[in-house]
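User: Hey, my collaborator sent me this sequence without any context and asked if I could get a structure. I don't really work with proteins. Can you help?
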Amino acid sequence: MPATAFCLHALGSSSEEFALLHDRLEGTLDLVGIDLPGFGTSPATSGRTVEDMVELVERAIGRSGATEWALVGHSMGGKVAAIVADRTVSGANGLFGLRGVVLLAASPRSPEPMGEDRRQAMLDWTAAGHIDTDHAGEFVDANTAAPLPHDRLRSALYDVERADPEAWRAWLERGSREDWSDDTTNPVPALVLAGAEDGDLGPSAQQELVLTHWSNGAFAIVPGAAHLLPWEQPDDVAERIRDFWVRRATNGPVVPAEHARVIASPRVSATTRGALAVRALADDPDAEPRVLSRAQLDTLRAVADVVVPQSGDRTVDVALRVDAQLADGAGDGWRPDGLPSDLEAYRAALDELAAAGAVDGALAAIEDGSHQPRGSLTVDQLAAWAEDAAVDLAKQWLAHPATMAAIDYDGYANGGDGVRKHGFQLLGAGQREAWEAGAPAPAPGAAPSASAGTDTDTEAAR
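Assistant: No problem. I've predicted the 3D structure and written it out in structure-token form, which is a compact way to encode the shape of the chain:
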């Protein structure tokens, strides 16, 4: 069964704008459109701010029960999609299973670039209480590179005309001006597409204002299109989405649905859920190593095949993740005595293994002490490194939530963020005795009673 892609439309549009993409992506992704407040069939009373839109989308995703999903955001919907993605990888919104994001001529997290004269003209269109056909036609013409086929034009015009005037004004006056940007980048694989003939949200804006917020983002320009990409070039857009999804989002293991639902539940803290969400992302098959050479990374992958053999075609690139660990200085803090720094040891040992030929045979010889070093590391140092590297590789494999599911581990579901945070009641000095005596427990953070004493055995367990 294909994963679900939740599609968020542009200003003056609706979920109907994804109908052509839905047909073309059948079998790859199941596109589900969401009407944002005041557009399509969604009443404006459901909210007019960006936060209102974000919460509406998060509720829809939560109700769907999807455990492997993507976001597709067009223009206004692109800003909403980016914020939902940020909140998902932080664990804040209680969702899990996001594997990729597609942004079509997206409005950025920062205020949208727009000439004030044009903004005011579009606001004036609602003076009569609705947007008439002429103004709808003006809007569509200004956002397309060439006239649309009749059936597509009719659908696009209908969406503009039925837009709620208050929702239209709310986006132009407030939503497009809201600033949700910060200095962080989102690690979810992202595809950013721009219409070659788009104006304010064209190629330059997408690269400078949108792409920079995605550490695993790819960018492409769609020729023969301006701003209404799903209506203008559905074949081209669908093919780019299909290629992105297959190449970047489906080459890692999937967390089984029942475990994904546990991770998304209140039994898991937001911090833990966010960490697991990032670990569950597919590794980029085209990623360059950050601190190892390409040859050293390939050798480490060969070591990983011996240490942590994986079956199937959706595996964890544990070697690439160890390279990232080395780059971040994020080891476990324990190092075998006598080894140089972690990075120096890895580089020297991997060069040694590459020179030795078959990695599995060389590892066996290192383990039994029969290998004769050719480089800077001694026999004992190589043996110590091999043991340390095996731990690192196994740790990266075990840290993946799909592996946790495979070994039926659910220790992360230890209480969530409520009173039973991390699986324990908040204990304080003397509180145990009060509970055992049948008295109500003091509130977390309350000062102990005069008779509490100083029994350190019952201090806060977190």
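In plain terms: Residues 441-462 have pLDDT under 50 and may be disordered. You can pass these tokens on to your collaborator as they are.
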